[in-house]
Structure formats: C-alpha cells, structure tokens
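Tutorial handout. Part one gives the primary structure; part two gives the three-dimensional structure as tokens.
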Amino acid sequence: MKSPAPFIHRNLPRLLLEAREAVMAHTRPSLRRHGLSDQQWRVLRVLGEHADESAGVETGRVAREAYLLGPSLTGVLTRMERDGLIERQRCAQDARRTVVKATSEGLAKVQALSETIEAHYAWMEQELGKTKLTALYELLDGVIALEAQDIALSEKA
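Part two.
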C-alpha cells in the first residue's frame, strides 16, 4: 500500500476552527448568562447591525450573514420568536419572503453583549497590538476574498 503524500502546509481550516473556538471560549459564558446559543447570538448580532432597517432583514440575508443553513435558521428563529427576541413577518414587497427584526428585548441583549465582546476585543488588541490585530483582520478578509473569487470562477467554468 502506497503511503499518502505528506502535507507541506499546516491545516488551515483546523487552525481557523481552533482560533474561533479560542475566541468563543471567552464569549460563550456571557451568551449563556443571557440565555443564548452561539447561533442565536449570530442572528441577534446580524439584526443588531441592521437595526436601522425598519422593514426588517430578509431571512435569506440573515442566514448568509449569520452563516446558518436555512433549516437551522428556521429552528433558531422559532425559538427566538418564542422567547420574545425577534419578530417575523411577511415581506411587504414579496409575500413569499419573510423578514425578521429584533425586539426591544433582543436589542437590549445585543447592547449588553456588545459591551462584553468589545471589551474582549480591546483586550486582544492590547495583548497582540493594534498593528497585529489589524493585520489579522486584513489577512482573514484577504483569504475570504481569494476563496470567494476562486469559487465564483469555478462556478462560471
């Protein structure tokens, strides 16, 4: 049996997951104190970032920006609506679509958690230095753009 070719580069997807988990280890206790799962927080963060959109945010956009698959998002939204964190309604322009808005209770959780999360990011900036943290953001944005461009090109082929 022929042995597989050795890997030359480190396992980037695993490193990215490990980094995510390391960051989330600081965030999860705060989420749990507010009764939120990781997925619910991602939805609330998206809705908080778009709170100025009075008509709400279309669920497809929430799914994309929160990195949740449609079926998972449906369950998450159902629980969040039950808990009074969000409101769902039909889109005024297209009744086949649903829009979502955070309630005042949901926005209050966004506000409270944003203070905790921003404090953690400030600590990271202090420990790593502003230059390194900025470089990390830029590198991640570059990887995302590079891979998105490659996917777009391969879909056209």
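Part three, for discussion. The radius of gyration is 19 Å. The longest strand covers residues 86-90.
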